[in-house]
Design goal:
Order of helices and strands: EHEHEHEEHEEHHEHHEHHHHH
CATH superfamily of the largest domain: Spore Coat Polysaccharide Biosynthesis Protein SpsA, Chain A
Number of helices: 13
Structural class: alpha/beta
CATH architecture of the largest domain: Alpha-Beta Complex
Distance between the termini: 50 Å
CATH class of the largest domain: Alpha Beta
Shape: globular
Low-confidence stretches: 320-342
Number of strands: 9
Length: about 350
């Protein structure tokens, strides 16, 4: 007689494509949870024999399951995992990122204490392939104050850019109500759209201030490729605009407008920097002026003026600034790792 397994509390939805070097670490971070009532569904999103072999090496752990399919894109991989999930809470976890050991314990405690809470997000460490730890996710998107888990996120908060880290715990019913990642296209960021839809639909979303995950900033990631960065910027901007039809409140529309101006400002500043380093002074000046048009900051004004008055000096100074910043980041990362081991 077969014995049915108890339903897990957490379902981790992981789509894997060309992440063979990192997948074991991701799986081990799930297995290292202080709570054991979870399942991990890994979608081999492209039929990689190596990915399949890695997952099958955990055959003795019945909580870990493998799904194989042709590559259906990131959203298609997550959706395939969600279709088989049996847990109360759905958690997207990329196949090169990691969890801290108490992710399930902390998010589960909040959700169990109040059935009215539909989803819980968190902060995360950003780290590179060399182990260097950078600033946290929430700080990187502009959070100036520590989030309070007792306060639900409002649509105004979200449209202002305060989006939880992509790995959170979402009740099954809430995930299904907004269709998870199902209707996301490659023109938007699926996690951003899902968080926005949850709040726009009236679901209660909280953010924990703790860093309960680790997000890998890979050397070959989109964030290091100029074309990829520009495409990502466009997807982020479109993501925020997907729910604008659901509100007519002046506060929401003002928050969205300010957020889009901020995003376009940073986009123009990056483009100005890149054009300068590529020797295209005309384009650099145009982008610096575009940045100033979005936000009248002292930084944008100084950059624009310097590009007209001292262009060669700007070209010489920028690489030095980059190297100094990188060196400082690695030093801080090593110190953070050392402190964590004490």
């Amino acid at each position: 007689m077969s014995v049915s397994r108890p339903l897990p509390a957490f379902s981790f939805l992981t789509t894997a494509y060309r992440t063979e070097p990192y997948l074991v670490q991701t799986i081990e971070s799930v297995r290292g949870q202080t709570r054991t009532d979870w399942e991990l569904i890994v979608v081999d999103n492209g039929r990689s024999d190596e990915i399949a072999a890695i997952v099958r090496s955990y055959a003795s752990d019945s909580r870990i399951r493998l799904v194989r399919q042709e590559n259906r894109g990131y959203e298609g991989g997550v959706t395939a995992a969600a279709a088989l999930a049996r847990g109360q809470y759905f958690c997207v976890l990329d196949s090169d990122d990691l969890l801290m050991p108490d992710f399930c314990a902390r998010t589960g405690t909040v959700l169990a204490a109040d059935r009215g809470i539909d989803a819980v997000g968190c902060d995360a460490f950003l780290f590179d392939d060399h182990g260097g730890t950078h600033k946290g996710y929430l700080r990187s998107i502009g959070f100036r104050t520590r989030p309070h888990p007792g306060h639900p996120l409002t649509l105004t908060d979200m449209l202002a850019g305060y989006i939880p880290y992509y790995t959170g715990a979402v009740r099954r019913e809430a995930w299904s109500a907004v269709c998870g990642y199902e209707h996301a296209t490659q023109e938007v960021e699926a996690d951003v759209v899902m968080w926005l839809r949850l709040v726009a639909s009236g679901f209660d979303v909280r953010i924990l201030p703790e860093r309960l995950a680790r997000c890998r900033v890979r050397k070959d990631s989109v964030s290091r490729d100029p074309a990829g960065v520009e495409a990502f910027d466009r997807r982020i901007q479109r993501s925020f605009q997907t729910v604008v039809h659901s509100t007519s409140r002046a506060e929401d529309l003002d928050a969205l407008r300010t957020n889009l101006q901020r995003l376009r400002y940073h986009q123009a500043m990056r483009q100005a920097r890149r054009s300068l380093l590529e020797g295209d002074l005309v384009a650099a000046r145009v982008e610096a002026k575009a940045a100033f048009a979005q936000r009248h900051t002292l930084r944008a004004a100084l950059v624009a003026c310097s590009l007209f008055l001292f262009p060669q000096t700007m070209r010489r100074l920028h690489p030095l600034k980059q190297r100094a910043t990188a060196a400082l980041g690695h030093t801080i990362g090593r110190r953070s790792e050392s402190v964590s081991r004490l």
